[in-house]
Amino acid sequence: MIGKTLGIYISIRFVKVLLGMVLGLGFLIVTVDFIEQLRKAAGIDDISLWSLYTIALLRAPSFIEQAFPFACLFAAMITLTQLNLKMELVVARSAGISAWQFLLPIGISAAIVGMLVATVYNPLSVRAFEKSKDLAAVVLAREKPGADITTRGYWVKQLDANGGTSILNAEIAREEGQVLDNVKILRLDETGQIYERMDVLKATYQPGEWQLENVFVTNENGVNSLKSLIKMPTRLTRDELLGISARPESVSFWSLRNTAERVEKSGTNGKPYLVRHHSLMALPAFLLAMVLVAATVSLRFVRFGQVGRMILGGILTGFVLYTVSSLIIALGNNGVVPPIVAAWAPGFVAILFGMSALLYQEDG
């Protein structure tokens, strides 16, 4: 049985490598996103670079969370390779410690990291992402009225009392879709013809109406007017707006089940939120699977000296797992398979694969 000291030593090595990978990935994400924010702000005068960098910093944790499984995969590969290069695993094997025993500390550390990511890191990253949208609404949502229509992130369609429809297209949606920033509104009559366009700086939902602030109105004759406040009736409910605007990744782990129930009551598909909830619950098992898969391509590195095999094997394994996970999650989101199956199946299959490969390599 592996000793306590050796187990802690291996765990610390793994956690240090994982932390280094996450920090490096975070730096890369912030840098790329900062460049993207600079592009968005190119036409805005008197904008603070620090504000743009803060937006990128607040958005980064959400993107890092999605990469944790692959960070764990490569961290385990690097840790095992380093231990092999320094002959530490060779000494451990000669002392009668099996591969399963020195993988145990890494597996336990990965599972603990998974639990912390799901229960602590995820809520904090969601909150940070919402803060980034609040800041972006102040800094970036300043387009000139009458600018060309462009495709934005949030679309809302509602029926009007006159038999027509209104289509709202917002750059930013906050507070469960009840606050929209930089909105383009096209109003259509019962025949489907556009009779009015409104460029709105901010739209706030109140039961039964939208309160539109700083509105640039263009009627069907091309006549323009500027109004400080317009109240536009709506039949949409808060739950319907939540289902339209809130992505499962933007909802905290602790609120996902309640959000799924609210979305289902509004007549929208709430399964993506359940899939997301179960995926976070299954994250410790999925990270454990990454450790086992990493071991299959790393343990015999020194013995055969195949650096290329280790790198290529890790990349291909990560790609296959990502593809399969995305496919199964998509099936779960659309109700083809139960959400709990869609969330747990990738990790369960990866664990079986890793254990089978290790049993074949170590025990023949």
Radius of gyration using CA atoms only: 26 Å
Helix content: 55-70%
Give the tally of β-strands.
6
Strand content: 15-25%
Can you give keywords for this protein?
alpha+beta, 2 domains, 16% strand, single chain, 6-stranded antiparallel β-sheet, 61% helix, 364 residues, elongated
Structure summary:
The chain has 364 residues and is of the alpha+beta class. The chain contains 12 helices and 6 strands. A hairpin with a 2-residue loop joins strand 4 and strand 5.
Mind explaining what this structure looks like?
By secondary structure, this protein is an alpha+beta fold. The chain has 2 domains: 4-140 and 259-363, no CATH class; 154-244, no CATH class. 61% of the residues lie in helices and 16% in strands. It contains 12 helices and 6 strands. The chain has helices at 4-40, 49-66, 68-85, 88-94, 99-139, 238-245, 256-265, 271-281, 283-298, 301-304, 307-333, 339-363, and strands at 154-159, 165-174, 179-188, 194-206, 209-219, 224-233. A 6-stranded antiparallel sheet has the order 1-2-3-4-5-6. Strand 3 (179-188) and strand 4 (194-206) form a beta hairpin. Helix 5 (99-139) packs across helix 9 (283-298) and helix 7 (256-265) runs antiparallel to helix 8 (271-281). The radius of gyration is 26 Å and the shape is elongated. The two termini are 21 Å apart.
